[in-house]
Amino acid sequence: MKKPAPNFLTCPAAAELPPPRESGDSSVASKPPAGPAGKPKKKIKLFLMIVLFALLGLAIFLIPPTYAFGKALLAGRDVKTALDTLKINLEQGDYEAAQDEAGRARAALDIFRNSLQGVGFFRDLPYVGTQVRALQDVAAVGVHSLDSLEDLLHVAVAMSDALQSAGVKPEVGVADDRSWQDLSPQEKRGLLSALDKSLPEIRLARDKIDLALALWQDIPQDRLLPSMRQALNPVAELLPVMRLALDQSVPLLEAAIPLAGYPAPVEYLVVLQNSDEMRPSGGFIGNVGKIKIDAGEITDFQFTDVYNIDNPVSGVWNETPPEPLAKHLGVKAWFMRDANWSPDFVESASRVLDFFIRETALLGLNENPQGVVALQPEFFRRLLRLTGPISVGGQTYDHNNFMDLIEYEVEIGFLQQGIKVEDRKALINEIGIQLSQKIQALPRSEWPKLINLVSVALDEKQIMIYARDPSLQSLVDKRDWSGRAKPTVCDFLWVVDANLAALKTDGKMVKSAVYQLDARDPNKPLATLKLKYQNTTSKIDWRYTRYRSYTRVYVPEGSTFMSSSGAMQGDLLQTGGRFVPGKVDIMKELGKTVFGAFWAIEPGKTGELSFTYALPAEASACLSRGEYVLDWLKQPGVDQLQMEVEILLPGRVLEADPPEADTRWGDAVYQVEADSRDDQRFKVKF
Fold first, then answer.
1. Domain end marker among 478, 501, 535
2. Per the domain annotation, does 47 fall within a domain?
3. pLDDT over 80 at 424, yes or no
4. Of 447, 478, 509, which residue is a domain's last?
5. What is the spatial distance between Cα 515 and Cα 517, in angstroms, rounded to a whole number?
6. String of b and e for 229-255 (b: at least 16 CB within 10 Å)?
7. 305 and 452 assigned to the same domain
8. Coil vs helix vs strand at 86
9. Tell me, what DSSP letter sits at residue 686?
10. Residues 250, 273 share a domain
């Protein structure tokens, strides 16, 4: 049947609804309408599925980092256990077992470090991430530290093997109560050989500790948990100690092994410089000695009065002395006792050695030492603090009375005992032998103290070394143990006194020096040095008198002398009690401009000597870059000079080393005080 067309006026075009079914039509089953009770069940199922998937996702998300943390925790416990055992091994001297434990600690630390890589997003969380990253950095520090320790343990094992090969029982080694003198010559050679072969490993261990310390300093310790900071305190304390020990021991071993006569025997001239009678390189040379060493074994040791060498050749020796020596000391020839006229020890030592060889040749001897070692009184005082007192000739010498008693015995006491003049210093040879024996008798447990004592003495110029072997001298120069003059970087100052006929009066002098530089105009820096010395002795006697010094001041080459005050023609006794102004000598030495003047100070009086000069263009160039550097060198033997530096700059001080006191910050003046224990460097940026 044809469908009627839609009426567009009454309804839109649409499909017609089917006609209603008859009640009897059962072709389609009827469905009851869905009631409201079915909806909650579906929602619960959906919620449970969401929770399940969330928990599953969270588990997948958390299990790996949690496992990583747990694994790291177990590895950290293994590290601690291995290190505790390692410490016990070291205390027992079982270096091979300690080496094994170090390997276990290193392996556990690698696991700890790798496990922390698996903590995932925790590493990026604001607070937790800091702790995680710190632990990773600590692990890196631990790796480098253990690497260094393993290198050192390898050296210890090598030394133990060397002792065993020399016939020492494996369980003995160098025990804490054994001393150097307990070791046989074969053992000493074996130890030196092992150390020599192990030097590359020791240097590598030092480099690894340097790296570990640099990493440690980068860790944000102020943001760590208090408990973590406390746990890491041992690391913070150990690293600087290890670094200091290696910094001291590596250069000391590099020089000490050849100096100790390994691999070939050596012979050195030893000069004792008395700083109570100051001379340019450290003091009057009153005693000289020879020491022969073969692989750490002293085979010859003898000292003598320097006059026993100089006096017998006085009729034929004709070296011309420097003009100040001739004028103010009244000598016509230049002998070995006065040969240390240069403040550069290498220059003085080479001349002392030359004079020694040639003077003894005139006496029919064939001496040919391979170098010179100079020792200052302070070094012996420190040794006696370590070894304890010694007794010679019924007298007990300790660190308090050492110089007082020696000077009395060789100047006065020998006369009362009827000892010949040429034999008056024989007691110094006996003192040297006994002190050497006490040093060699120190137990191994005291060796670190001895090494530190010697290292500090070298740094402070209480010991200085000159070697004719260029390679050995290069090692000594590298560590600044040769007392050489230094090049000028920007500004330079070196005050050098020479006691000329003032007995031992330097021992009673209180010395201070003030250096002022007006650099407000960088193109015209003007310097003034003021020396103020007080003679504290109350009277003239066999030991102390008026102070007489020819003082030289070394400044940058090209400096222009402007004026001076305090220079004298002679002491008051020589000039009839009147102050007669003296001239200032201007010369060039050691790549510096030098101002020299004589002055004298009566007992109980204070004297002043000053120099004003313009610095050269090189100093102006330094200042124009906004920086200033002053190198003020120590004269060997002068340990208590009070130094003050005052620099007037063209701009405000930005950085300074050493720093000023807080109250002096914020202006264009740099002002600090220092002492003369060692060479000083003052650096300023403005």
1. 478
2. no
3. yes
4. 478
5. 7
6. eeebeeeeeebeebbebbebbbbbbbb
7. yes
8. helix
9. -
10. no
Q: In this structure, which amino acid lies at residue 100?
A: D
Q: What's 397-465 look like in SS3?
A: ECCCCHHHHHHHHHHHHHHHCCCCHHHCCHHHHHHHHHHHHHHHCCEHHHHHHHHHHHHHHHHCCCEEE
**Dist CA 684 CA 149 (whole Å):** 39
Same domain, 277 and 216: no
Domain ranges, residue 606 = 491-685
Rounded Cα distance between 262 and 185, Å, is 12
State the Cα angle at 473 between 469 and 477, rounded to 5°.
Answer: 170
Count of C-beta atoms within a 10 Å radius of residue 560: 13
Residue 57 lies in a domain: no
pLDDT digits (tens, 9 = 90+) for 627-650: 999 999 999 999 999 999 999 999
Mean pLDDT of the chain: 85
Number of domains the chain is built from: 3
Q: Does residue 482 register a pLDDT over 60?
A: yes
Number of helical H runs and strand E runs in the chain? 15, 20
Kindly report the pTM of this predicted structure: 0.78
195 and 95 in a common domain: yes
Say whether both 318 and 448 belong to one domain: yes
Structure tokens at 124: 């990026």
What's the CATH code of the domain at 654?
Answer: 2.60.40
Q: If you average pLDDT over residues 346-354, what whole number do you get?
A: 98
CATH number at residue 326: 3.40.630
Q: CA 234, CA 669: separation in Å to the nearest integer? A: 41
Cα–Cα distance between 147 and 208 in angstroms, integer?
Answer: 7
Whether the per-residue pLDDT at 32 is higher than 60: the answer is: no
Give the separation between CA 352 and CA 365, rounded to whole angstroms: 16
Count the neighbouring beta carbons within 10 Å of the beta carbon of residue 227: 8
